[in-house]
Write a structure and sequence with these properties.
25% strand, AAA+_ATPase, four-stranded antiparallel beta sheet, 9 helices, 36% helix, Phosphonate C-P lyase system protein PhnK, binds magnesium ion, single chain, alpha/beta, globular, lyase activity, binds adenosine-5'-triphosphate, Rossmann fold, lyase
Length: 258
């Protein structure tokens, strides 16, 4: 891990009218670090993630991001073209519902290849080969390369979405409940796969989940949210094994888990 944070979040708040989405959130994320955001339904996890990834504009606060040229840029003061470029190259976003992150009517190969073309690769043979390699990396048989994702199972779609996001070697990946819509048996394998890829690629990631097992397996550090506030944060093992806040204790002892 580098000695400079990748992301610096300062007093971020988002209000929906008078309702709190998230409030006064501050933290730093280092390269290669996986941060889990946990909390019950409505605690503000998605709101926070969407503000961080600039899909949503916060009401107050700032987020700065260390670009590849080492300069820090304020995410909310970039122009649209710069933000889009970041999203296409440096960042990935894995949606809970793969249909939101895939193009369902183009082939699996094109779903992966498209991201490569977006970063300037124009060599068809190489793009197809890289797409095929990535399909096998996410355990999709290469002979499915010309099939559309609508003919894939839920787990396959999610793995395809992951391949599409990781093919460009992003530095930061946002994930909102990446295993949320899947059968328990499929979840475990997907998590294993995801953990391997994140480790191998040295990715930084912010993972929203209500599932503490996902946080345990994937993350180095975690933040616990309640009613829009971060009420506890720390190393994942510390928070899960020795929670300080009463609310986190209840969460961990599964009284609050659904
Ligand atoms: N578009 C919106 N308009 C108004 N209020 C919203 C909107 N989106 C979220 N909220 C409110 O903001 C709060 C946080 O919602 P958010 O979706 O961030 O929670 P969450 O932790 O992601 O929940 P879940 O686990 O159910 O996905 C909730 O009170 C919610 O009702
Ligand atoms: Mg949510």
């Amino acid at each position: 891990m580098s000695d400079l944070p990748l992301l610096k979040v300062n007093n971020l708040s988002k209000f929906y009218g008078s309702r709190i989405g998230c409030k006064d959130v501050s933290f730093e994320l280092w390269p290669g670090e996986v941060l889990a955001i946990v909390g019950e339904s409505g605690s503000g996890k998605t709101t926070l993630l969407n503000c961080l990834s600039t899909r949503l504009l916060p009401s107050t606060g700032s987020v700065t991001y260390r670009m590849r040229d080492e300069t820090y840029r304020d995410l909310y003061h970039m122009n649209e073209a710069e933000r889009r470029f970041l999203m296409r190259t440096d960042w990935g976003f894995v949606h809970q519902n793969p249909a939101d992150g895939l193009r369902m009517s183009v082939s699996a190969g094109a779903n992966v290849g498209e991201r490569l073309m977006a970063v300037g690769d124009r060599n068809y043979g190489r793009i197809r080969q890289t797409a095929a390699d990535w399909l096998s990396r996410v355990e999709i048989a290469e002979d499915r390369i010309d099939d559309q994702p609508r003919s894939f199972s839920g787990g396959m779609r999610q793995r395809l979405q992951i391949a599409r996001n990781l093919v460009t070697s992003p530095r930061l990946v946002f994930m909102d409940e990446p295993t949320g819509g899947l059968d328990v048996s499929v979840q475990a394998r997907l998590l294993d796969l995801l953990r391997g890829l994140v480790n191998d690629l040295g990715l930084a990631a912010i993972v929203v989940t209500h599932d503490l097992a996902v946080a345990r397996l994937l993350s180095h550090r975690m933040m616990v949210m309640k009613d829009g506030h971060v009420i506890e944060q720390g190393l994942t093992d510390r928070v899960l094994d020795d929670p300080r806040e009463r609310y986190t204790q209840l969460l961990v002892s599964s009284i609050l888990q659904v």
